[in-house]
Amino acid sequence: MKKAVVVTGAAGCIGSEIVSTFSQQGYFVIGIDKNEITNHHANLKIQYDLVKLTKDPLELQRFYETITQHLDHHDVALTCLINNAAVQILEPLDQIDLENFYLSFDCNVVVPLCLTRTLLPQLTEAKGVVINIGSIHARQTKPAFVSYATSKSALAGLTRAMAVDLAGRVRVTCIEPAAIKTEMLLEGFAGDLEMLESLKKYHPTGTIGNPEEVAEFCYFLAESKTPFLNGESIALDGGIGCRLHDPA
Asked: Which family does the record assign (predicted)?
């Protein structure tokens, strides 16, 4: 039976690359995003705000029925769930809007939990894998990243907890990228190419990452011949996490 993967945040740079990589490897790809998905490699495109799943059990049930109907219709087995969708809201601690803080947790933590729990029967049957896309901010962060960093730290904890709870049924891992060359990142450096070059040089690799690297890592984990790899949050950071930053 053909393998299927569910990819959230499929309209963004990283999500779109994940869609393409898995499609090219023969997967039936179900892409989900609140924005329009333009990548033609997605076999099924679902435009939907996943945060709704955290508010209404009926929404969750309808979502489950939609996914399972498509899996059955196309005669494919769900072997992988990639929780890539995320929201990044920057606010310093003394200016945090609690609604934004809650939204960060809903999108970055609760949605992955809901999707994993909801699709667990299919993932269990296939001895599948859940791949959470975390962030370097789970370990090292910067000013104004309070909501984002805290939620990504929680996602790392959720990864460990789910790996234990789903022992023998489903593997769960997390990829924690540092700076990745996305449109959003490049827009942030518009007009300041010197700063972008400085960021590249600050990484021991001398460069920032590409969406393709994240996608290939996801595929490796999904197809891994090392099933002992489980419950781990793995840095994909060009070595920047090894570098001591001090004024000396």
From this structure: Belongs to the short-chain dehydrogenases/reductases (SDR) family.
The band of 247, judged by pLDDT with boundaries at 50, 70 and 90, is low
Q: What is the pLDDT of residues 138-179, one digit of tens each?
A: 999 999 999 999 999 999 999 999 999 999 999 999 999 999
> How far does the chain reach from its first CA to its final CA, in angstroms?
58
Residue 188, domain member (yes or no)? no
Q: Tell me the residue length of the chain.
A: 248
In a domain? residue 11: yes
Q: What is the pLDDT of residue 248?
A: 56
Inside any domain, residue 192: no
How far CA 100 is from CA of 51, 105, 200, 211, in Å, comes to 13, 9, 30, 26
Round to whole Å and give the CA distance between 171 and 227.
Answer: 8
Residue 198 lies in a domain: no
- What mean pLDDT comes out for the span 73-89? 98
Domain count, the chain: 1
Does residue 149 sit in helix, strand or coil?
Answer: helix
The contacts of residue 46 (CB under 8 Å, 6+ apart) are 30, 31, 32, 33, 37, 66
Q: Copy the structure tokens of residue 193.
A: 């190419």
Map tokens 């984002």 to a residue: 148
CATH number, domain with residue 16: 3.40.50.720
